[in-house]
Design goal:
By secondary structure, the protein is an alpha/beta fold. The chain has twelve helices and ten strands. Helix 5 links the parallel strand 5 and strand 6. The chain starts with a helix and ends with a helix.
Length: 332
């Protein structure tokens, strides 16, 4: 008997090892195609302003790309935001970027140069519009911003684009009826804390660390953007059709919101590139974006919303060929 059981144990061990090898092979096939040499070279990725979600996401994605493609150098460029990002990719100053759908549509409408080369890689997560004022401010609606000092974002930013549209929807001329200030998330919170501005707009993923940090230093609140304003925004046409009514959930900034949701608008963010970027490289980038969701999401909360089922919806951009190949390869 003592000779029989060892033979069975070895057989089972060999069977178990074989199953394990097959499982590992299938996993590697999904993550990194077997036998395929990773792309190499240098690419430029345009991100956003310091303390913004684009910047942090770009930094962490670069790390993940380096794991999958050790020979690929990713150069990050700060930017004012979505509008500048779209322009950089369209004019070949950058190869990949993140931009809000309204900024993409607006660029296509206003600029013929390079617009036809723009392509989608993945729909990532939604940006939420934040209108921030001190807690003791008399501003209760967007219309109350008249004659106030308002930070409407950096020139060529997605914040500037959406802030000016929201103001116009409320009947406010953003150049005549307020004192516009060119501050983003990197400088706006400090200027509000110092009393140098009365309000600032921000459009970003939830939660944005720059606002979470402000909540620890100064009492502030969010001004609601109600459904009536959303309807007026849609009346503006063009890129404004990509805005949807939603709420900032009470869990986003619990110390500020104290269990109350805030009506606002949201717009989807797209990872984008061009037609002339190597499709094989784009396929690998797409794979890394999808499989690194949880790893990046542990640090950038918005990244947790990246989903294979919705990533393919990159309207107004058609998918780049490399991204299309990836999604077809993993289609159930």
């Amino acid at each position: 008997m003592s000779k029989v059981f060892p033979r069975l144990g070895r057989r089972r061990a060999l069977q178990g090892a074989a199953v394990g090898v097959v499982a590992l092979a299938l996993l590697l096939w999904w993550l990194l195609p077997l036998g395929e040499k990773p792309p190499s070279g240098t690419i430029v990725f345009s991100t956003g302003t310091p303390r913004g979600v684009y910047q942090e996401y770009g930094e962490r994605l670069r790390t993940e790309l380096g794991k999958d493609m050790p020979g690929l150098k990713v150069k990050l460029l700060n930017s004012a935001g979505s509008q500048e990002n779209v322009q950089r990719v369209a004019t070949r100053q950058a190869d990949f970027t993140i931009a809000a759908a309204d900024a993409v549509a607006t660029y296509e409408q206003r600029h013929g140069s390079g617009a036809g080369r723009l392509r989608g890689v993945a729909r990532l997560y939604d940006d939420y519009v934040h209108l921030v004022v001190p807690r003791d401010s008399d501003v209760r609606t967007v219309a109350d911003l008249r004659h106030k000092r308002v930070a409407t974002g950096l020139p060529n930013s997605g914040v500037r684009l959406i802030a000016e549209r929201v103001l116009r929807a409320a009947g406010i001329d953003p150049r005549e009826d307020i004192t516009p200030v060119a501050d983003g998330i990197d400088t706006g919170p400090a200027r509000l804390r110092e009393g140098k501005i009365d309000a600032f707009f921000w459009s970003g993923g939830l939660p944005t660390k720059g606002l979470a940090a402000l909540a620890q230093q100064r009492a502030f609140r969010f001004v609601p953007i109600d459904d009536d304003l959303v309807a007026r925004l849609h009346d503006q046409g063009g890129g404004a059709r990509y805005y949807r009514a939603t709420n900032i959930p009470e869990s986003a900034y619990p110390k500020v919101q104290q269990g109350v949701q805030v009506p606002t608008i949201a717009v989807s963010n797209l990872l984008m590139t061009r037609t002339d970027v190597d499709p094989r490289l784009t396929e690998w980038v797409t794979r890394t974006v999808i499989k690194s969701r949880d790893g990046i999401g542990a640090h950038v909360h918005s990244a947790q919303l990246v989903d294979l089922r919705t990533a393919i919806y990159t309207d107004p951009l058609p998918l780049q060929e490399g991204a299309r190949r990836y999604y077809r390869s993993v289609k159930p």
